[in-house]
Design brief:
Order of helices and strands: EEEEEEEE
Strand order of the largest sheet: 2-8-7-4-5
Radius of gyration: 14 Å
Structural class: mainly beta
Shape: elongated
Mean pLDDT: 87
Helix content: under 10%
Number of helices: 0
Low-confidence stretches: none
Distance between the termini: 43 Å
Length: 110
């Protein structure tokens, strides 16, 4: 994809910055202007600081996604074995190979 093909307008749908440790998954839904079906996106889920549960800025998972719908998509982080460790996280969203958005969130105790 050429840079000129990258969307210039995007938004996170119903953003939330705080989650409990026990949901089955965390989902980020987004809308993008001018993105066609099959447009290349990527998510990188990172644990910024979860104490002794993982090193700082630990990459949890990276997934590529060809948009299944016109102008929208979603990324999902499935619950880890013992739930999500309490701490701070970020989701990096890429359009093509360009970092488009960083979404920071925290996981709190029950």
């Amino acid at each position: 994809q050429d840079r000129k093909d990258l969307p210039t307008s995007y938004e996170i749908v119903m953003p939330t910055t705080e989650f409990r440790a026990d949901p089955p998954k965390i989902v980020c839904v987004f809308k993008v202007e001018g993105a066609s079906i099959g447009f290349s996106t990527k998510s990188v889920w990172i644990a910024e600081d979860v104490g002794d549960k993982a090193p700082k800025n630990h990459k949890i998972i990276e997934k590529s996604l060809a948009l299944p719908f016109l102008n929208s998509g979603s990324f999902t982080l499935t619950k880890l074995n013992n739930g999500f460790p309490i701490g701070s996280y970020r989701l990096e969203i890429y359009f093509g190979d360009k970092l488009a958005k960083t979404v920071k969130f925290t996981v709190k105790g029950q």
